[in-house]
Amino acid sequence: MSEHEHEAKKASIVVFSGDMDKVMAAFIIATTAAASGIETTMFFTFWGLQAIKKKVPTGKTFFQRMLSLFLKDINGIGPSKLNMGGIGRWMFKQMMKQHNVASLPELRKMAVDLGVKLLACQMSMEVMGIRREDLIDEVTDVVGAATFIAEANKSHITLFI
Questions:
Q1: CATH code of the domain covering residue 53
Q2: Disulfide: which of 3, 19, 138, 141 matches 80 by Cβ 3.0-4.6 Å?
Q3: Which long-range contacts link 26-29 to residues 24+ away (Cβ below 8 Å)?
Q4: How does pLDDT run across 111-148, given as a tens digit for each residue?
Q5: Are 11 and 40 spatial neighbours (Cβ–Cβ below 8 Å)?
Q6: Distance of CA 89 to the CA centre of its chain
Q7: Residue 90: how many CB atoms within 10 A of its CB?
Q8: Which residue range(s) make up the domain with 96?
Q9: How many CB atoms lie within 10 A of CB 79?
């Protein structure tokens, strides 16, 4: 057997988007990988932080507080197309429910239960005025890009969503 066959399979996913459909895709891929025995890490940066943010106002500076008006939690993010002032988000949630598709909070919980590591981008948090206590408790760590690159370097699958 080769050296590679003894190594644990790993997947790393950068979650850059805060769009409902893209966050859903990221969690579906992460939970599928984890359920398949692949050690999985998700790195949430910029708008993707909404998927692991509590429903709380953020920011210290004027600009950060203004940005906070647009930062949602996992229940508040809308689809990338057809959001229509929030009606699209409601419509997609209804359609997913009719087809027995897990909601975003359920997918996130499933990821946590399957041992997916949830990493938050330190730089994005600093820029956007998001503190560690503004994130859900299940976040594994707040790290810089170098830490994620070291993790992704060991991965067999690396995705950017």
A1: 3.40.1260.10
A2: 19
A3: 26/51, 26/159, 26/161, 27/51, 27/104, 27/107, 27/108, 27/110, 27/111, 28/107, 29/159, 29/161
A4: 999 999 999 999 999 999 999 999 999 999 999 999 99
A5: yes
A6: 17
A7: 12
A8: 3-160
A9: 18
Global confidence as pTM: 0.90
User: What tokens does 2 get?
Assistant: 């080769």
Residue with tokens 């003894």: 6
Q: Where is 160: in which H helix or E strand?
A: strand 157-160
Number of domains, the chain: 1
Supply 132's token pair.
Answer: 């560690």
Per the structure block, which two tokens stand in for 115? 């041992």
Which residue(s) pair with 12 in the sheet? 41, 158
Residue-level pLDDT at 122? 98
Question: What value, to the nearest 5°, has the Cα angle with vertex 136 and ends 133 and 141?
Answer: 75
